[in-house]
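Lecture notes, unit on binding sites. The following record was shown on slide 14. It pairs a sequence with magnesium ion.
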Amino acid sequence: MEVIRVENAWKVYPDGTRALKGVSLEVNRGDFIGVMGPSGSGKSTLLHLMGGLDKPSEGEVYLFKKPLSPMREDELAEFRKRRVAYIFQFYYLLEDFSVLENLTLIAQMLGIESPEDKALKILEFLRLSHRLEHKPYQLSGGEQQRVAIGRALISEPAVILADEPTGNIDWEEGRRIFELFRKLNEEEGITFVVATHNPDLKPFFHRIVNLKDGEML
Ligand code: ADP
Ligand code: MG
């Protein structure tokens, strides 16, 4: 089943930078895809387009077979909300709130039932039960990223787009995070698209999309 399709996508930023030059790809349910390429090759731009966070200058992106370019911002936000989740290199947690609140606040915003029970279950799965009342700044990088993963999971997404999710943490913890992704992919059927420039992570991916200067190799 098709989850995301990118059709001949070009992205030209207002300053004239051509970040993507005719990229096409299809993501199917259950895929675990790596988007690889050196810094500046267009990985983040491609992930933004795939999640509807930005629009292509030319071409089209289909999310669950629906073309995104005709949608208004509010329609798109609503459409995306329980389907696609993002994980970023720099976590972007709510700094003034506890680990538990970082999940429950999102859950309440999304209208999810029994947010606290669900958050506690997810945090246990993520080995964070001993950190519920901590604030993000009291956590290690790996722990903060696990909270960000928890925040993604509480929306019960069909697909997770992760942009250099281990770019800021050490190799051991990074590998554990990838093992967690693999488990979620295999056991929960969550589709993953992960951008990374770290070749050591290649063995995790079912398929690799290689980018260079905005083009697929
Ligand atoms: P990657 O994630 O692989 O490092 P990016 O998608 O971030 O690559 O960037 C691709 C190219 O687009 C780079 O040349 C980058 O400098 C440029 N770029 C990214 N974002 C913008 C922006 N908002 N405005 C102008 N140029 C941008
Ligand atoms: Mg990037």
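Take-home: The longest strand covers residues 2-12.
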